[in-house]
Amino acid sequence: MTCDILNIPFEPIEVNLPTKEHLTADHAILMYLVDKYGKDDSLYPKDLKKRALVNQKLFFDTGILFARLKNMVVSVFYEGATSLSEKQLRDVYEAYGFLEEFLTRSKYLAGDGITIADISAITYVTSIVYVLPLDAKIYPKTAAWIKDLEQKPYCQKYNARGTALLGERIRQAFK
What we know:
By secondary structure, the protein is mainly α. The protein is built from eight helices and no strands.
């Protein structure tokens, strides 16, 4: 999505999670791409305080959101789980709570404009939500954030299909 936003030519490559293709050395580096190709610093601010907020949310993204999704994926793809454990449920609801708290302070995770923190986080959040739906009455800010980002052309083009495939694979295991 970041390459699309920055108009960087690239070749999308589908990754097969069950065969562990995601563990290869190839990976995206959002901070580098924005620093090198960004026309401005809106996606990853140069101002140290603003950048620290983006970094904080990127660390949340990798340490909390990715970890929650990874636990679901590992339990389904590699351990044969047929439902989420109580701990997994608690962990996901905790992550939803963190998101809601962040989004009570600003429209997006690190301020009033979309940053690479939002771009990265939406991929994990939409996959998690596909498996464990988010209650918009309990998490209204998070639901609005998801809806807003899902309307972006780059999100529709690059996130929707993968989210649906991953989410459906996990849900099928839970039947």
